Every structure is written in C-alpha cells, then in structure tokens.
C-alpha cells in the first residue's frame, strides 16, 4: 500500500515537472519562456538554458515512463481475472425453486397448464416487390 502511494506521488511530481519544463522551454516563436522576460531564462539557468531544460525534460520523461510501467505492474497484480473473462462466464444456475411470471388473470378451475394452447409463430412476411421503373423522355432544353 505504501509503495502505491509513493509511486503515485512520484507520478504526480514528474507530471507537474514535465508540464513546467515543457512550458519554460523556448520555442521558435518564443512560447511561455518569453513571458518571464527576454533574458530571464538565460540569467536563471545560464547561457545554455536550452540544454539544461532539454536534459531535465528527458530525465523526467524517462522517470515518468518507468514509474507508469511500475504502477501498471503493481495494480495488475491485484486482479487475477480480467473484466472480460468474468463477463464471458455463463450465468449460474438458480439454487432455489424456479418461479415463473405471475399470471395476470387467475386460471380457471380444473384447467392445467398443459391444456392451455400455445401461440403459434407468425408466418414469415414476403418482401415487398420493388417499385416499378418509370421511364420518361428527355425534356428538350431551349437554347
């Protein structure tokens, strides 16, 4: 349980760090890095700020991916069956007496269920004939 909490914490820290690092990097058009001032990135991280931010982004991305795989392994060990395999199982047989639907009208006295006629299935319906083709002569176009 403690390992899950630690891994989730590392995942959150890495994701927030990645968001910040990616937004701080200077793109071709400037990006959010210019919002902190034109030379702020260079004065804060040195003249090679792009290289430092790029390396930190790669490091945090690798830690994020490894941590995600570890989280998947930790959480996959909890479940022995997949959701699909539990849904594919046939329904269990009822353990008690089988009760049917309650009839809407009381049965007449002296009539058993075997004497009640069953409904016959309806006869198959034949498909409708295709509509007749109507051929018309082309209308002359006035020039």
Q: How many alpha or pi helices? A: 4
- Rg: 37 Å
Shape: flat
Element order: H for helix, E for strand:
HHHH
Question: Poorly predicted ranges (pLDDT <50, ≥5 residues)?
Answer: none
Strand proportion: under 5%
Broad structural category? mainly alpha
- Number of strand elements: 0
Describe the biggest sheet? none
- How far is the first residue's CA from the last residue's CA? 87 Å
> Mean pLDDT, rounded to whole units?
74
Helix content: 40-55%
Q: How would you summarize the topology of this molecule?
A:
Layout: H1 2-24, H2 40-45, H3 49-76, H4 83-87
Helix pairs in contact: 1-3
Q: What features would you describe in this structure?
A:
With 143 residues, the protein is mainly α. The chain has a domain of 78 residues. The protein is flat and about 90 Å long. The protein starts with a helix and ends in a 56-residue tail after the last helix. The mean pLDDT is 74.
Q: Main traits of this protein?
A:
143 residues, mainly alpha
Offer a concise description of the structure.
This protein has 143 residues and is mostly helical. It has four helices and no strands.
């Amino acid at each position: 349980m403690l390992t899950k909490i630690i891994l989730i914490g590392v995942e959150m820290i890495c994701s927030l760090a990645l968001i910040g690092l990616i937004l701080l990097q200077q793109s071709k058009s400037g990006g959010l890095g210019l919002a902190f001032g034109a030379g702020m990135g260079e004065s804060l991280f040195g003249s090679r700020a792009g290289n430092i931010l790029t390396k930190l982004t790669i490091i945090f991305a690798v830690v994020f991916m490894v941590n995600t795989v570890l989280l998947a392994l930790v959480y996959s060990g909890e479940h022995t069956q997949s959701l699909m395999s539990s849904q594919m199982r046939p329904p269990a047989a009822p353990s008690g007496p089988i009760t049917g639907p309650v009839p809407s009208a009381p049965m007449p006295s002296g009539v058993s269920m075997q004497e009640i006629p069953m409904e016959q299935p309806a006869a198959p319906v034949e498909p409708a004939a295709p509509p007749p083709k109507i051929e018309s002569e082309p209308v002359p176009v006035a020039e």
